[in-house]
Design goal:
By secondary structure, the protein is of the alpha/beta class. Helices cover 45% and strands 24% of the residues.
Amino acid sequence: MDLLDARLRRCADYVRQNTMLCDVGCDHGYLPCQLALEGKIRSGLACDVNPAPLDSARRTILRTGTGAIVSTRLSDGLTAVQPEEAWDIVIAGMGGELILSILLNAAWVKQPGRRLILQPMTKADVLRRGLCREGFRILEEAAVTEGSRCYAVLLAEYDGVVRTCSPLYAITGEMKDDAYLAFQQQRCRRKAQGLARGGDPKAESARRLAEEIQQRRNAIKSEENHERKANL
């Protein structure tokens, strides 16, 4: 049995072994239940601000027989979660602004040892800027494609260092996946074209950003080729 689609599987890959997991915005509770079935988590808390998703999560828990490990909680973000209940926190399937708001409303996520696994459906650039501004370090990113769109899954933790977030970093972060970079580059090109048609001077900035993404893609490909040759 595998309850996870590609997007949630990417999130699951970043969850640490034997952790206490909190899934914010749990929908059907698939993520904690699947990881309980795999023996990866010590406990799983499926949270949602609405009762209906929690009812769905309870049905998933019953169907999978994971009730000894997974429980549900009515919670607006992390407001009803205690720090000792959540060491790996997944917030997936929301906009980047909402994800950032949830984090900033729970000061304890800045305590040592917490891992944040964040999957924004929109405004990933806003999320990256907020993380840099608030002292969170993005450790790694992975990409997942759904239909014609490509999404990022971010692994982050708090280290207290306020970082500068350039326009390029806001768009690409730590991502090395070429499909994701190409997707973002195309978005910048379309934005530049639209602004240019309207005579907006910001078109030049969007065009330059698309060029910077291409340079990043080239640099990553060059590094990968060098590593392959070194391993021959």
